[in-house]
Amino acid sequence: MGKHIPTVRTRRLTGELRRLREKSGMTWESVAEEMGWSASKVYRIEADKVRVLVRDVKRLLSLFSVEGEEREALLELAKKASEKGWWHQYDGAIPEWFQFYVGLENEASAVHEYQLSLVPGLLQTEAYMRAILSTAPVTDSDDGIDRQVAVRLARQARVTAQEPVTLWIVLDEGVIRRLVGGRAVMREQIEHLIAMGELRNVTLQICPFNKGEHASMLGSFKILQFPQDEDPDVVYLEEQTGSLYVEKLEEVRRYSLMFDHLREKAISGPESLSMLKQAAKELQ
């Protein structure tokens, strides 16, 4: 059995199990004694650090005297939480530290993103992807790059789905000025940004150089929002070999305020599309 990778559903399920334990007045130790487990296992389940089986959820719900519609809803959630996402077919192409993000993104209703140096993955063309992937510090094999491209293209399906994810993207001007892959590749990429920016679920803004300093000059970030009230926003920060997830409410709020500042600093959507069209023209 592979390493447990948390998802939105497992996060929601384990949060509910923790809430029910606290409501019952039981401790990790008392639950462990009743279940025949160690207290550390109860902690790891509630912290979403280990996979929780449906049969164990049934036993826990009985222990907490959960019946009726609430029990049925939680068992249904447990069954869905145990299902593998589409990205598991690409094992090896997605690092474990990124699989959690893909799962979150797959369930998100909205993504607010600021990018300092690269076009966001959900809006990249295949040629742009390949140019980026081929310049990695440790270049993958052709087959490995093909699999990474396939994953990124599969992620993009949500942008044009019948019930699409809502994107609000703010790009630093440097993103559209850097000639990734050469003039032809970059022109195609900018033309793709123009097309995506005209979708009803995509808002695209550019923060030009002449706007001066702003709130997020130190790096890129994403804020993922979810349709269920019990699933709080998550901030995602990516590094070369790992990632950081910010979930504390006050810290998430600071990033939300930062994104609001960036939206105000950037030029409007129509102005940004005009700037993109001019940039594409200059690359002809």
Write the layout of secondary structure elements.
Elements: H1 8-24, H2 28-35, H3 39-46, H4 54-63, H5 68-81, H6 96-107, E1 110-115, H7 126-133, H8 142-156, E2 166-172, H9 173-177, H10 183-197, E3 202-207, E4 221-225, E5 234-238, E6 243-246, H11 249-265, H12 269-282
Parallel strand pairs: 1-2, 2-3
Antiparallel strand pairs: 1-4, 4-5, 5-6
Helix pairs in contact: 1-5, 2-3, 4-5, 7-8, 10-12
Task: Sum up the structure in keywords.
284 residues, alpha/beta, 434 Repressor (Amino-terminal Domain), Endonuclease, Chain A, six-stranded mixed β-sheet, 12 helices, DUF5753
Structural class: alpha/beta
Q: What is the CA-based Rg, rounded?
A: 22 Å
* The first-level CATH class name of the largest domain: Alpha Beta
Return the average pLDDT rounded to an integer: 91
Give the number of domains.
Answer: 2
Please state the second-level CATH architecture of the largest domain.
2-Layer Sandwich
Strand order of the largest sheet: 3-2-1-4-5-6
**Approximate strand percentage:** 5-15%
H and E string: HHHHHHEHHEHHEEEEHH
Number of helices: 12
By DSSP, the count of extended strands is 6
Shape summary = elongated
Low-confidence stretches: none
Main sheet: strands, sense, barrel: 6 strands, mixed
Quaternary organization: single chain
Helix content: 40-55%
Terminal Cα span: 52 Å
InterPro entries: Cro/C1-type_HTH, DUF5753, Lambda_DNA-bd_dom_sf
Domain HTH cro/C1-type: 17-71
Protein name: Transcriptional regulator with XRE-family HTH domain
GO molecular function: DNA binding
